[in-house]
UniProtKB/TrEMBL annotation:
Its EC number is 5.3.1.1. It catalyses: D-glyceraldehyde 3-phosphate = dihydroxyacetone phosphate. It is an enzyme of class 5 (isomerase). CDD domains: TIM (cd00311). This is Triosephosphate isomerase. Keywords: Cytoplasm, Gluconeogenesis, Glycolysis, Isomerase. It comes from the Bacteria. InterPro entries: Aldolase_TIM, TIM_sf, Triosephosphate_isomerase, Triosephosphate_isomerase_AS. Pfam families: TIM (PF00121). One of its GO terms (biological process) is glycerol catabolic process. The lineage of its organism: Bacteria, Candidatus Colwelliibacteriota. It is found in: Cytoplasm. PROSITE patterns: TIM_1, TIM_2. One of its GO terms (molecular function) is triose-phosphate isomerase activity.
């Protein structure tokens, strides 16, 4: 079954709207990832969907003002954490911090969705340049990671989200996204002996979802804007059934 992750980012603006929307899209195979402040209330109403967080502290509970530790998420029945979203990277998160967050996530027994993807500037130089960029992003996170992992089994997703496709209405082509997904999977197995599922993200909507999600290489989707409209999101989820 393909995984459809609803990344609400900094939406919606009220608690009531968040609860209403969560109830509307509470389907199996969906991960709802609201802002931190709505996690607890949504956790209480979900019957079918899973819950995710948009970020996590690399630190355990303690004197870390403004941070949310993995075990605090687990207490709210959060199962997934998005790590290294390009909007977090833009806000200043470094590869080193992202590696620490990934380790903290997996060591706590949470499932991780690690985001990678190139800028328009990189893609201008062609698809091979994009692959090289993504490879370097993965290397910077996974080199040396196995020594820090305390757990034997973990569930890891890599979300390929080209930055130029996020919120722009322009997607990558399904062919390129599928090729990138294969490339990532091969790299992860060959270099790190890790088997991962690859999600596509970037302007996915009801009209284009099928062309991506029907590809065997693509294990699901990371959906931003379209996950805030239940009718639109329903059509995306339906393409996987
Ligand atoms: P959009 O679906 O709004 O392009 O956002 C994609 C994204 O960043 C999901 O994490």
């Amino acid at each position: 079954m393909k995984l459809i992750v609803a990344n609400w980012k900094s939406n919606p603006s009220t608690h009531a709207e968040a609860i209403r929307l969560a109830k509307e899209i509470d389907w199996k195979g969906v991960v709802i990832v609201p802002p931190f402040i709505y996690l607890e209330a949504i956790s209480d109403v979900l019957k079918n969907a899973s819950l995710g967080a948009q970020d996590v502290s690399p630190n355990d509970v303690g004197p870390h003002t403004g941070e949310i530790a993995p075990r605090q998420l687990i207490d709210l029945k959060v199962e997934y954490v998005i790590v290294g979203h390009s909007e977090r990277r833009k806000a200043g998160e470094t590869d080193e911090e992202i590696q620490k967050e990934l380790v903290a996530t997996l060591n706590a027994g949470l499932k991780a969705v690690l985001c990678v993807g190139e800028s328009a500037e990189v893609r201008k130089n062609g698809f091979e340049a994009a692959k090289k960029f993504v490879k370097e992003q993965l290397e910077s996170v996974f080199s040396g990671l196995s020594q820090s992992l305390k757990v034997m089994s973990y569930e890891l997703y890599v979300a390929y989200e080209p930055i130029w496709a996020i919120g722009t209405g322009t997607t990558d082509t399904p062919e390129s996204a599928a090729e990138m997904a294969s490339f990532i999977k091969q790299l992860m197995v060959n270099s790190y002996k890790l088997s991962v599922n690859v999600l596509y993200g970037g302007s996915l909507n009801a009209s284009n979802a099928k062309s991506f999600l029907s590809r065997s290489e693509i294990g699901g989707a990371l959906v931003g804007g379209a996950s805030l409209r239940s009718d639109e999101f329903k059509k995306i989820v339906e393409t996987t059934q």
